[in-house]
Design goal:
heterodimer, A: mainly alpha, 0% strand, B: mainly beta, Porin, twelve-stranded antiparallel beta barrel, 3 helices
Chain lengths: 141, 298
């Protein structure tokens, strides 16, 4: 039995990986995008203003950063996805009504138990540039 | 029609994604031993080659090669498999074993010191020269043994790490505290790793470019052993310190390099480390699409 232990551990670990991935698809109901994260944003963060607000150059830079880091999940046009696994649109009313500070907080902290990883590893300026780009997008049809 | 996951068209599709994927890219810290609390993005697979070369005093020159497969299972859980080998001049090339690890972020937001937990199982022989971490009294003596002898002893080891990271004004500071237990009744061994890095530019440019400053990150890394449960401390341990740099090629791999210098008599003089990492984005969606397609066919 002793000799089999490593192999059993490895095989069980490898078996878990696809299950984990598949489990995510089971959670494909777009109703999970309930916006509850907004309630967790501290007042101080909610009130923050983007240093790049209204700057076309920042939005242009943000578009590139978005394409490289965000588009794979949220779509090249930020429309999200309704087919499994569902991903939220970033042109929604919720995002349009959220403050720059709210979105900045979400990008920094993520919403890991709903599938959104934190982007704290991206420099803060680049996160603001992404927000500047999102503000240029028209509302979802 | 029977379900055949590895039918030719699907195999070619997978191959094309691996070879031609326009979205291949990786966000990497320029660290070789230290882990930050950045996890792999959910659904992404990172494929990395981690190499090290050195010419220890009184031993043959060697190079060690580690293949790393890192998968983002969820936004709070990353799993990774390592396969290792080494080549020693005037000796031989041998496979030295594998490691399987999981990293978890237990808290749902970022803090001044964001924690993550690391749990690993290793099955590696004494011929291992990857120096993926230093624990206990690991040192230069271990590197002098002939492969034919050292590969006979295989260690089954469980390892835990507490990972801490801080991100401030573009800087990342990461600290690791390592505890390792060889399951052959050896005492607990301890180690540490600390690193800091920063991109050369914090804001993104308005046009795509390869040699932009934001594609480079520089930093420094220090790590070493802290003895065992019976002899905790710096006595007879090895430690390394060195600058690190990486270059993230837009829509391509991330290449990292670091010369690391031994700080004690028990250390190798200089380690030359290099790493190439590719990130295949949203490979899970592809697999899920295949499974969904298979269900429809049934």
């Amino acid at each position: 039995m002793k000799n089999h232990l490593p192999i059993l551990l490895l095989m069980s670990g490898l078996a878990v990986l696809p299950l984990a991935g598949y489990a995510q698809t089971g959670n494909s109901d777009s109703s999970k995008f309930d916006g509850k994260w907004l309630r967790r944003v501290p007042d101080e963060d909610h009130a923050r203003h983007s240093p790049f607000a209204g700057q076309p150059a920042a939005a242009a830079a943000g578009k590139l950063i978005f394409a490289e880091n965000c588009a794979k999940c949220h779509g090249a046009e930020a429309n999200g996805r309704t087919t499994p696994p569902a991903r939220p649109s970033l042109r929604s009313e919720r995002i349009r009504h959220a403050t720059d500070g709210d979105i900045s907080w979400l990008l920094r902290n993520g919403n890991p138990y709903k599938g959104m990883p934190p982007w704290s590893s991206l420099p803060e300026q680049q996160r603001w540039q992404v927000i500047a780009f999102l503000r240029t997008l028209p509302p979802a049809k | 029609m029977p379900f055949s996951f590895f039918s030719l068209p699907k195999f070619l599709t997978l191959a094309a994604i691996f070879i031609l994927a326009p979205l291949l890219h990786a966000q990497e810290k320029p660290y070789f031993v230290t882990y930050s609390t950045d996890l792999e993005e959910p659904g992404n697979l990172e494929i990395a080659f981690n190499g090290i070369a050195a010419a220890p005093k009184g031993a043959n020159t060697f190079s060690s090669h580690t293949l790393e497969l890192e998968y983002g299972a969820t936004a709070w859980w990353t799993a990774e498999l390592y396969a290792q080998a080494q080549s020693t001049a005037n000796d031989s090339t041998v496979s030295t074993g594998f490691r399987f690890e999981n990293r978890f972020k237990p808290l749902p937001r970022e803090y001044w010191f964001t924690p993550a937990l690391y749990i690993e199982y290793e099955q590696v022989s004494d011929a291992d020269k990857s120096l993926l971490e230093i624990t206990g009294n690991d040192g230069i003596d271990k590197l002098r043994a002939a492969n034919a002898e050292s590969r006979k002893t295989i260690a089954h080891t469980m390892e835990g790490k507490l990972l801490l990271s801080s991100n401030m004004r573009g800087w990342n500071l990461s600290e690791n505290f390592i505890a390792e237990k060889n399951m052959n009744n050896d005492p607990w061994e301890f180690g540490y790793a600390v690193a800091a890095s920063r991109p050369l530019a914090l804001a993104g440019g308005v046009s795509r470019c390869t040699l932009c400053r934001q594609n480079f990150a520089v930093g420094a890394e220090i790590y070493g052993g802290l003895g065992t449960r019976h002899a905790f401390g710096f006595h007879d341990t090895s430690h390394y310190l060195g600058p690190t740099v990486n270059f993230r090629i837009p829509n391509g791999p991330t290449v990292s390099f670091s010369p690391q210098f031994g700080l004690s008599d028990n250390s190798v003089g200089t380690l030359w480390r290099f790493k190439v990492a590719y990130e295949v984005q949203q490979i899970r969606d592809l697999l899920n699409a295949n499974l969904t397609h298979a269900k429809e066919v049934r």
